[in-house]
Design brief:
Layout lengths: L2 E6 L2 E6 L9 E5 L5 H15 L11 E7 L5 E7 L6 H9 L1
Parallel strand pairs: 3-4
Antiparallel strand pairs: 1-2, 4-5
Length: 96
């Protein structure tokens, strides 16, 4: 999560941001007030709005969205840049 990448002079360079300088931007979305039939489409809309390329020069290279379904509980969506975690590493993270 602390890694950043810059492209200069035709080469990529990795840097690490100090732990105390990280600012994780987690978004909490309340969908519990919507009818259950509308919750999924609303979540899809919110994900589409947040979707997009990450700025590789700014840490953390992860996006977090938390959806509150009220009584049904929460759903967490993590969007990791593939430079941080490949498919196997992502599966290990999600299993934990």
């Amino acid at each position: 999560m602390r890694a950043t990448f810059t492209h200069t002079e035709g080469q990529w360079r990795q840097s690490l941001v100090p732990c105390n300088a990280l600012d994780l931007d987690a978004v909490l979305c309340y969908v519990s007030e919507l009818p259950e039939s509308s919750q999924i489409s609303r979540i899809g809309e919110m994900i589409q709005r947040r979707q997009g390329g990450m700025d590789l020069s700014r840490a953390p290279l992860i996006q977090v969205m938390i959806f509150n379904h009220g009584v049904s509980g929460y759903v967490i969506r993590l969007n990791l840049n593939h430079l941080l975690a490949d498919q196997v590493a992502s599966e290990v993270l999600f299993d934990d």
